[in-house]
Amino acid sequence: TQLLEQSPQFLSIQEGENLTVYCNSSSVFSSLQWYRQEPGEGPVLLVTVVTGGEVKKLKRLTFQFGDARKDSSLHITAAQPGDTGLYLCAGAPPYGGATNKLIFGTGTLLAVQP
Amino acid sequence: EPEVTQTPSHQVTQMGQEVILRCVPISNHLYFYWYRQILGQKVEFLVSFYNNEISEKSEIFDDQFSVERPDGSNFTLKIRSTKLEDSAMYFCASRADYNSPLHFGNGTRLTVT
């Protein structure tokens, strides 16, 4: 069974601080997605990383896929209250079969205080 | 921008009752999924549907669950006899093709009493 562990589980920081969220597994994934979920809503895709070592930037968010494609990180620079939410990583197993389903991580709940 | 829509947003039912959760995936999408998220837990895969049939299902998706695409637009999840532990947010998702991004609906919160 492929598992994705995220750390930390909860993070409360002040506006303007930087933070990093980690997504780790002992398994290889063909790609990894990061989602953000707000209360009462479904996950919204932020980014997909595919190549080992890949780095993608989305404004103040930087995503990295590990060289071995087993882990990923999300770094937020100068966090703002609007960044508050549940951040989820989700991996696509290398042999996706008929469906290419995603395996979701345990989630990181971020609260940015003004 | 096209989106996945789910109804109802909240469903309360008594244990043992049947419920049907409805989804309208994005119109040109070919792959359809149901996931669920029990409060405080991670999002879990239930079932995927492609080419008018189930292509994969998880251990959670037992004989009490079924899915259907009765016409060209709706995709439904039926739970035949609900249990307390079925209480969760149920998310429908769709994607255009095998490798394209997965789009989620806003979910149906199912509460079984």
For the sheet with most strands of chain A, the description reads: 6 strands, mixed
Share in helix of chain A: under 10%
Low-confidence stretches of chain B: none
Q: What is the mean predicted local confidence, pLDDT of chain A?
A: 93
- The counted number of beta strands of chain B is 11
Largest sheet of chain B: 7 strands, mixed
Helicity of chain B, in percent? under 10%
Strand content of chain A: over 45%
Number of helices of chain B: 0
Please work out how many helical segments of chain A DSSP would assign: 0
Rg estimate of chain A, integer Å: 14 Å
> What number is the mean pLDDT of chain B?
94
Low-confidence runs of chain A (pLDDT<50, min 5 residues)?
none
**What structural class do the secondary elements of chain B suggest?**
mainly beta
Shape of chain B: globular
Range of strand content of chain B = over 45%
Shape of chain A: globular
Provide a descriptive summary of the structure in words:
The complex is a heterodimer of chains A (114) and B (113). With 114 residues, chain A is mostly beta strands. Chain A has strands at residues 5-7, 10-14, 19-24, 31-37, 44-49, 55-58, 61-65, 71-76, 85-92, 103-104, 108-113. Chain A is globular. Chain B contains no helices and eleven strands. Chain B has strands spanning 5-7, 10-13, 19-24, 31-37, 43-50, 53-57, 65-68, 75-79, 88-95, 103-104, 108-112. In chain B, the strands form two sheets. In chain B, strands 2, 4, 5, 6, 9, 10 and 11 form a seven-stranded mixed sheet that branches. A four-stranded antiparallel sheet of chain B has the order 1-3-8-7, with no helix packed on it. In chain B, a hairpin with a 5-residue loop joins strand 4 (31-37) and strand 5. The termini of chain B are far apart. The model of chain B has no long low-confidence stretch (mean pLDDT 94). Chains A and B meet through strand 5 and strand 10 of A and strand 4, strand 5, strand 9 and strand 10 of B.
